[in-house]
Amino acid sequence: MLFTTLAVAAARERMTERLKRLTVEEIPLTAASGRVLAEDIHAPDDVPAFDRSTMDGFAVRAADTFGASEGLPAYLKVAGEVLMGGSPGGILNQGEAWRIPTGGMLPEGADAVVMVEHVEEAGPDIVAVLRPAAPEENVVRRGDDVRAGTVVANEGKRLRPQEVGLLSACGVVRVRVRKRPVVGVIGTGDELVSAEAIPAPGQVRDVNTPALAAAVEASGGVPVIFGTVQDELPVLRDILARAVGECDMVLLSGGSSVGTRDLTLQAIASLPGAEVLFHGLALKPGKPTVGAVVDGKAVFGLPGHPGSALLVFELLVRPLLEPELLKRVPLRVRLGRSLRSAPGREDYFRVRLVEKGGELVAEPILGKSGLIATLARADGLVRLSIDATGAEAGELVDLFLI
Amino acid sequence: MLFTTLAVAAARERMTERLKRLTVEEIPLTAASGRVLAEDIHAPDDVPAFDRSTMDGFAVRAADTFGASEGLPAYLKVAGEVLMGGSPGGILNQGEAWRIPTGGMLPEGADAVVMVEHVEEAGPDIVAVLRPAAPEENVVRRGDDVRAGTVVANEGKRLRPQEVGLLSACGVVRVRVRKRPVVGVIGTGDELVSAEAIPAPGQVRDVNTPALAAAVEASGGVPVIFGTVQDELPVLRDILARAVGECDMVLLSGGSSVGTRDLTLQAIASLPGAEVLFHGLALKPGKPTVGAVVDGKAVFGLPGHPGSALLVFELLVRPLLEPELLKRVPLRVRLGRSLRSAPGREDYFRVRLVEKGGELVAEPILGKSGLIATLARADGLVRLSIDATGAEAGELVDLFLI
């Protein structure tokens, strides 16, 4: 198999267009925080559902207050009171003022609210308005916030607290969301033992399986760990076939570099109907990545090094779980130290964020690329584009928080 | 009760020092993604646990290759092979080279690895080394990544996939974490009906209760909804007492502005042992906030407007659930439009992030402050400090993503 590297965006596109859509389920909005919408949501109701006051004060006809001043107030008759949560139960006539609280329903006939601070009691049921009110002042009209029928949240959106609030306000109580994708995770490598085992000399613990499972969970998926397997084709093929059968997506890690062993690729390619979409990304770290589709499901062979595996997860896997990530604008940050990169690939560098002279500065984390301790020290990733040959200290570069 | 406003940081501090510590539980690392560590974690084992090669090639004594070149190679005897996951099972002697894969265990006696690209097979069991290897070249020594005993993750850290990976690598299989805090959520207001109800004229759906419950969940807590109650002191006091009894923290929303009704404050203050720490924050939006401690548990009276309630949640409540948030460095962004603010309070503005001329620009979202639809359009919040009177378009300001 030819080792041709593919740009990250092209790899993403090639995979996305071949994937089966995830099953949809309908759930109560109260259980939908963090879930991904399976359809655009149209507001069933206007918000607010009635004309409201935005201040404590008096509902009036603005025309009745024109020219009012402290020296020459407009005297109005207090003819009613709006109670919180109640209907005014009457019409406001010319020359009248109705007491109204913030959020109270504006009586018919009123078109403005005078703040309580701009009014003086001037006798039994008489108020003196000391300033003119403009029409619509301190009033929100029915539908001003959300008009019934408009789209208030888009398909693919992962619901944050503020969307849950907005949907509640519009009267949405159930939503259709994508089922949480079940993602199988398999570690491969003759040197690997499970994280719970005591490694013999020469053996190491499988770091990628628990780290990728945690990444799946943080992205709203349901990880299923299929364990750590040795580099033996029949064993790997069996476990992979089982994982593809039971899951919506499968992540293998380790064993994907071109060398003596490209068992991952062989095992993936051997599955009935497997289509290998790319083998090798124009990406550092993360070049030795395999991407395939089997039965409409994504199967990834991720690099063995945890830093590379987590980066490829972030760039290729996570956007499949949280599609709106692709729309996000990269943050921009000043680089604390010059970096070199090779044109023809995207380069990512782990950074710490520090404040320097009122600006945010990304300090690349030094250390050999194979180290694991540096991963946990990073606040984010800086990207140098596929054309770049590097970036100078002080230059503005793209930043992704991790 | 005097309405004195308190700075956000002071309010946070005053509350934090009076709170009871959350119960601790020990769980498997595989279940700990997103949980908050209850103690510093010291690495039980060195990582790596043995000297390793970082390249495919030949383990050698560097001294045996000094002066080697393409014209005058160093000829070494291939005396062994290290298998992936195995122990070398022998000592590398002077004049010897052992085949070794990336990640293989370095044989005793070797102090460098020559990459396979810099070696030629020169006969049966003889290799010609074409370049000198420096001592320690392509080698990672035991403990170079993590030394046993060092702190690899701090108390209060919310575990990300990379920490799960690092802890796995060190042999940590169980961790002591804070129990997920149970947070009671109560909506108050005569005008409110639950989000599921059809509001009568003058009534509105309770937006804060579902939005705050979602925010609790997104911060790693367990929300318990106690429902939406009318502004009646005995009712509110009863439900509040029950919530404080059953939960680790309680959030009320609505009813906390100084006006005719400060029932929230009365209800909170009426609980046995309640200590009201502040009533009013030097914050916009979010001024009418009550903070109290009852029996070592935080009780908040949040503002009624969803935007204000979610902001106070972000600034005061969330850091109690995810303490490391207080250590984060604010991002910095250029302002797309000038903003006015009043000195003596922190001002927050909802913004959309857009790219302009290679820089990230925060565009304040316009619209009346009472609107809900604008909440869901925001990517982040821009902060103007307590001394600021505003910020000009193009100025760098603090940004928090939401």
Would you mind describing this structure in some detail?
Two copies of one chain form a homodimer. Chain A is 18% helix and 32% strand. Chain A has seven helices and 28 strands. A six-stranded mixed β-sheet of chain A has the order 7-4-6-5-9-8, with no helix packed on it. The relative contact order of chain A is 0.13. Chains A and B meet through helix 2, strand 15, helix 3, helix 6 and strand 22 of A and helix 2, strand 15, helix 3, helix 6 and strand 22 of B.
SSE map:
The structure is a homodimer of 402-residue chains.
Chain A (H helix, E strand, L loop, with lengths): L7 H9 L7 E5 L12 E2 L9 E2 L3 E4 L13 E8 L14 E5 L11 E4 L3 E5 L2 E4 L9 E2 L10 E3 L7 H10 L3 E5 L3 E7 L3 E2 L10 E2 L2 H11 L3 E8 L3 H14 L2 E5 L9 H7 L5 E5 L3 E2 L5 E5 L2 E6 L3 H16 L9 E5 L3 E2 L5 E11 L2 E6 L8 H5 L2 E5 L5 E2 L4 E6 L1
Parallel strand pairs in A: 5-6, 13-16, 13-17, 14-15, 17-21, 19-24, 22-25
Antiparallel strand pairs in A: 1-12, 2-11, 3-10, 4-6, 4-7, 5-9, 8-9, 18-20, 20-21, 22-28, 23-27, 24-25, 24-26, 26-28
